[in-house]
Write a structure and sequence with these properties.
Layout (H helix, E strand, L loop, with lengths): L1 H4 L2 H13 L2 H33 L4 H27 L1 H22 L9 H45 L1 H47 L1 H9 L2 H27 L3 H24 L5 H43 L22 E9 L6 E9 L4 E5 L6 H8 L7 E6 L2 E2 L5 H6 L1 E4 L10 H5 L7 H10 L3 H6 L21 H10 L8 E5 L7 H11 L7 E6 L10 E6 L2 E6 L1 H7 L2 H14 L1
Parallel strand pairs: 3-8, 3-9, 6-7, 7-8
Antiparallel strand pairs: 1-2, 1-4, 4-5, 9-10
């Protein structure tokens, strides 16, 4: 019963087609519920009309005309169906499926960042990307085909009843018997689908892992690849075992099902033979039509129950997709009452903030930080100290659990978050270069002329990238889609990420280990560019290598989500605390 309650997700799957192209489901309904049953009805009546014409003594020309008229109707319906499905409907389907894909991606972009900490949400997102358009279309087809099957059943029932009402009773009895035999199979098939879906998840994970370039080296250089393939084989074995058990359970229904249709046809044949023995030859044409009508009726009942099974399965998939869209966000949705992002250089204050991740022991509590406009502040500490978390709070990727984040003295939650982020430049340690052109990669924040981009390239030492691109700013910085694309080194990728921050003016720059892929000399030179006096933005840098922050106005040493030391580089060295210990240890590593 619970599975039948999930039928509401069929409505969820139907909505996109109604939203993005009402004519598509309407045209599909016309084809399935009107044209197809009409074609079946005419096809069933054609043998009776032809044979009756002959037995009634009609001329050959009249008989051929009768056959031609029925055939013409069937041909016109077939042509109409083909034209509708292969022209306008085909184009509409593609447009609607693209609109559905866009809807999924818009939902993802508009969903709060916290959900990406949840593997289940990410799985739902991936599933929606892959299957929402497909199952939405399947829902339209299944529902309209069900309506069409019902229409055909009514039409065939009317034909049979017009000949002999008792034959309807015979048909009903056989339909009921067929239902009784199919219901256990339908229930088992739905359960089978759920079990197979669970088994398929791991197979899908292995497939995705093998596709990802970053996993390729590890899968080949260790036993990880062989281990995953063994697990994949075990998963496939379980998959096959589930299917084998299903067929063992349902095989007992196959024999009686195989008997029903020929037995029903024989009963109708006996009915007609008895009339012919009695001298009523007019029943010969009727037999031909009744045989076809009964066969069509049985086939449509069979399809109807098959559709019920398919609908239940589609509903289960719809539920999985709906879970992705049910994620409620508080940060990313547009806020009509939001304050516009301020211009100019920003001041930043973290006032007694508290924050923790779900299912994690890490937490920040009672954290205070005050950064003046134009100040250059470094936040240092060991891995896991909470440094990068602070950048996510300043970008409002998360909301604090307590306290307040203030930009220019105003709560960050008051601002239009999307406009505010356009005024906050961020360079991450884990750089993600877009599989797009060099121009697109440099202008993710602001558009710029060729002259401006060339100046930025020169300033950031990206001449090697420009040389690889043969001086063409529109060459793709990836070989994802073309062999002619440019491949960047780790250092070049970080320079490109930093270059984005020089295509416009920002109120705040957040630098999260932006030069970790560079050698010490290149890193030093790049830091001089970042700290150039022409850069007036407030700058907060997250750093693990302390040599990069010696010239910052103030350095905060963070440990376990708390500030344990603060001051200039010289002041912290003189204090000989944790910062001094960390700096000395790193210096020894460089010397070694």
């Amino acid at each position: 019963m619970k599975r039948f309650q999930k039928l509401r997700y069929i409505t969820f799957l139907l909505k996109p087609y109604w939203k993005h192209g009402k004519m598509y489901p309407l045209m599909t309904l016309i084809m399935q519920a009107v044209l197809q049953p009409l074609s079946s009805t005419v096809s069933v009546l054609l043998p009776k009309a032809a044979i009756d014409s002959v037995t009634n003594g009609s001329s050959t020309a009249r008989t051929l005309a009768t056959v031609g008229a029925y055939t013409a109707v069937i041909i016109v319906i077939a042509i109409l169906t083909r034209i509708i499905s292969n022209t306008s409907q085909a184009v509409m389907q593609i447009e609607i499926q693209y609109a559905i894909q866009l809807e999924v991606n818009e939902k993802a972009i508009g969903t709060d960042f916290k959900y990406y900490d949840n593997p289940e949400f990410f799985s739902q997102f991936t599933y929606a990307q892959q299957y929402f358009a497909m199952y939405s279309n399947n829902a339209v087809m299944q529902v309209t085909q069900m309506v069409g099957a019902v229409s055909s059943i009514i039409a065939m029932g009317a034909i049979i009843a017009s000949a002999e009402l008792s034959l309807i009773l015979v048909s009903v009895i056989f339909v009921i018997l067929s239902m009784i035999l199919r219901l256990p199979q339908t229930k088992g098939s739905v359960e089978l689908s759920a079990k197979l879906t669970d088994q398929s998840r791991f197979a899908g994970y292995v497939g995705r892992s093998l596709q990802q370039k970053e996993n390729a080296a590890e899968l080949r250089s260790s036993g990880a690849g062989a281990k995953m393939l063994r697990a994949y084989k075990n998963s496939l074995r379980k998959y096959v075992d589930i299917i084998r058990d299903y067929y063992k359970t349902t095989s007992k229904f196959y024999l009686p099902q195989a008997i029903l249709t020929p037995l029903q046809s024989s009963i109708i044949l006996v009915y007609i033979v008895l009339f012919i023995i009695a001298g009523d030859t007019s029943k010969i044409g009727l037999y031909a039509s009744l045989t076809a009508a009964t066969s069509t009726l049985t086939a449509n009942f069979s399809m109807l129950f098959s559709f019920v099974n398919d609908i239940l399965e589609i509903a289960l998939q719809g539920e999985k997709i709906a879970r992705f869209f049910e994620a409620e966000s508080t940060i990313e949705p547009p806020n009509p009452n939001a304050v516009p992002a301020p211009d100019g250089v920003y001041s930043v204050e973290l006032r007694d903030i508290a924050f923790g991740y779900e299912n994690s022991a890490f937490g920040i509590k009672g954290f205070n930080l005050n950064v003046k406009p134009g100040q250059r502040v470094a936040i240092v500490g060991e891995n896991g100290a909470g440094k990068s978390t602070l950048t996510k709070l300043l970008l409002r990727l998360y909301d604090v659990d307590g306290g307040t984040v203030l930009i220019n003295g105003r709560d960050i939650r008051d601002y239009d978050v999307h406009a505010l982020r356009r005024h906050i430049g961020i360079a991450y340690q884990d750089v993600r270069i877009l599989a797009m052109s060099l121009r697109d990669n440099l202008t993710v924040y602001n558009d710029a002329t060729d002259e401006e981009l060339l100046r930025v390239i020169d300033r950031l030492g990206l001449q090697s990238v420009l040389e690889k691109a043969s001086g063409n700013l529109d060459v793709q910085i990836s070989r994802e889609f073309t062999e002619d694309g440019v491949v960047l080194s780790g250092g070049e990728a970080q320079r490109v990420a930093l270059a984005r921050l020089f295509t416009g003016s920002f109120g705040l720059l957040l630098l999260d280990e932006p030069s970790s892929a560079l050698d010490p000399l290149a890193e030093y030179n790049l830091m001089q560019v970042i700290l150039d006096k022409s850069n007036t933005a407030t700058t907060i840098m997250i750093a693990h290598r302390l040599s990069t922050v010696r010239n910052f106005d103030i350095i905060y040493h963070v440990e376990n989500g708390e500030i344990i030391e603060s001051g200039t580089h010289d002041e912290l060295i003189a204090a000989q605390g944790k910062y001094y210990e960390m700096f000395t240890r790193q210096g020894e590593n460089y010397n070694n």
